[in-house]
Write a structure and sequence with these properties.
This protein is mainly alpha-helical. It is built from eight helices and no strands.
Amino acid sequence: MSLSQELQTALVVCFSAVFTQNILLTLFLGMCPFTSVSREVRTALGLGGAVVFVMTCTVVLNWMAYHWLLVKLDLEFFRFVLFIVIIAAFVQFVEMVIDRYSPRLYQNLGIFLPLITVNCAILGASLFMVIRDYTLLVSLGWGFGAGVGWLLAILAMAGIRQRLDESRVPVGLRGPGITLIIAGLMALAFIGFSGVLG
């Protein structure tokens, strides 16, 4: 495959990861922080930005580690351990940077920032990259697109939930009930993009 074809494939995979194969709303990975941290747009933007950074970097690093180390040494079965170690290292780095430069955001994210390490969306992106046998450039597009798709979904949820604070929601639906209904409707909307990129 030529470089221009690979770049075109990477762009298509990136666009697909944002809309038609949104890791959160069509593959349902990373729902716990999505429902818990989506109360305010600012907090959702901070966590979403951290997820985009961690997912993009770790997918690329995991691709390199998998193909240049594990495959060469015939140790593919260690991929789960290696992927989680790489993800944990990046999350620690992001946590230190956020704590240093935005203590308020660090406090708002609370326990969910270190839990990015075990966010199934982050690990899932790396595993999908291996399963689908993406090249390095396509993996970069997939990781970035999956992160942006997750960010887009959590920002939309946070915006809707902030508007709902001003609305009269029936008592029985307040909190998790209305959040799950909104998530289901958003998932239906994103699944509606299916078929756009055949």
